[in-house]
Design brief:
This protein has 361 residues and is α/β, with parallel strands linked by helices. It has helices at 37-40, 62-70, 85-94, 108-115, 120-133, 153-162, 188-204, 208-224, 268-272, 275-285, 294-303, 306-322, 332-338, 344-350, 354-357, and strands at 5-10, 46-52, 76-80, 99-103, 139-145, 166-171, 239-242, 247-249, 261-262. α3 (85-94) links the parallel β3 and β4. It is globular, with a radius of gyration of 20 Å. The structure holds iron/sulfur cluster. The site of iron/sulfur cluster has 12 residues, from loops.
Length: 361
């Protein structure tokens, strides 16, 4: 039997939000050119599928998309801004096993400013609460941590914890997908301090899943200091992204779109073993963008499990026997930055922020 893959299906580039860190809404897809059910049916078997956008629930046929994907995939999680409560609730009635991650970028005012969605926090929160009250098990927040909202990180985690929800984090990235090349964290130490607090909250819990989330957040500190990824990136080998136009890509982190083939016009087998796909894989092997997004970090954490595993064991042992908490200064780069051995300008220059490379940040 063919090996199951990890796939991300970008069902639309249309979006009702106006996030400060993502310009995708300025380059939406047209409904008539978005992935058809016939194309979705050509996807390979998957052990995990993330449905994302744009805002996926803008598509009025999303239920049909999910129906088609459940024939292919063991587990599906939809990333959404949670604005279309009725549509989300309606879909969850048919698929109570589905995962829903709602992007909330901070407490009310911060969220609405960053997302450019008036009433966005209340709508997102209402959707979350409704789903929990319906008995949905796999529901959670997603937050893109940046200078403006880092101070809300632990407060939002506490809300998710009280509601017994998942809490997914990310930080700023630049790529064709976000139609953005100038995202950057300015006050790295302040943002990392909030991640450190979150990591200690996660390590303190009794949930092994949260301990591994602590490792992921440790990787985010490493990322915002523009360092090499903690784990290799194997995107396009057993993972893929497909965009609304049917183009299959390794990931959503590249500067320009990298295309392995098009599923509207090719079969999966033809596309996946094509010379174009091999060319993209060769580029991934020497990619230096060092993204740390859940889509590329989670498969790597499963594949190279021994590394996060030992990190978790070490920190749990230190915590238990020596009462020692996690510190961001265990990363050499953070110590070097604190001690003035590395400057902000040097770190900026190593980031993916284009403006920073020419010293304009
Ligand atoms: S590091 Fe990985 S996820 Fe990021 S752009 Fe390169 S190949 Fe894509």
């Amino acid at each position: 039997m063919a090996k199951k893959l990890n796939g991300t299906v970008i069902v639309t580039y249309r979006c009702n939000a106006r996030c400060t860190m993502c310009n995708r809404y300025k380059e939406p897809s047209r409904p008539e050119e978005e992935l058809s059910i016939a194309t979705i049916e050509k996807l390979p078997p998957m052990y995990f599928t993330n449905i994302t956008g744009g805002e996926p629930f803008i598509r009025e046929d999303l239920k049909e998309v999910v129906r088609a994907l459940y024939k292919k995939s063991d587990r599906i999680v939809i990333s959404t801004n949670g604005f279309y409560t009725d549509r989300i609730v309606d879909l969850c009635k048919e698929f109570p096993q589905i995962g829903i991650r709602i992007s909330i970028e901070g407490l009310e005012q911060t969220n609405n400013e960053i997302r450019g969605l008036e009433d966005g926090y209340r709508r997102g929160y209402t959707t979350l609460k409704t789903l929990v009250d319906m008995g949905m098990k796999d529901v959670g927040f997603g937050m893109t941590v940046q200078d403006r909202n880092a101070g809300d990180l632990v407060a939002l985690y506490n809300i998710s914890d009280e509601m017994n929800m998942e809490f997914a984090t990310a930080s700023l990235h630049n790529s064709f997908y976000f139609v953005e090349s100038n995202n950057i964290i300015h006050d790295r130490l302040a943002v990392a301090q909030n991640f450190e607090d979150l990591i200690n909250r996660l390590l303190q819990s009794s949930s092994p899943k949260k301990w591994f989330r602590a490792y992921f957040n440790h990787g985010l500190i490493n990322y915002i200091f523009s360092q090499k990824r903690l784990l290799p990136c194997d995107m396009s080998f057993d993972t893929f992204f497909i965009d609304p136009y049917g183009d299959v890509m390794p990931c959503n982190g590249t500067k320009e779109k990298q295309v392995m083939g098009n599923l509207n016009s090719q079969s999966w087998e033809e596309l996946w073993s094509s010379p174009e796909a091999e060319e993209v894989r060769a580029k991934v092997r020497c990619c230096d963008r060092n993204c740390w997004m859940i889509g590329s970090a989670s498969p790597a954490m499963h594949k190279y499990i021994y590394k996060p595993f030992w990190w978790v064991v070490r920190h749990k042992i230190f915590r238990f026997f020596k009462k020692k908490k996690y510190s961001m200064y265990e990363l050499k780069i953070v110590r070097d930055f604190r001690d003035g051995k590395v400057t902000k300008q040097e770190l900026d220059a190593c980031s993916t922020c284009e403006r920073c490379k020419v010293g304009e940040a």
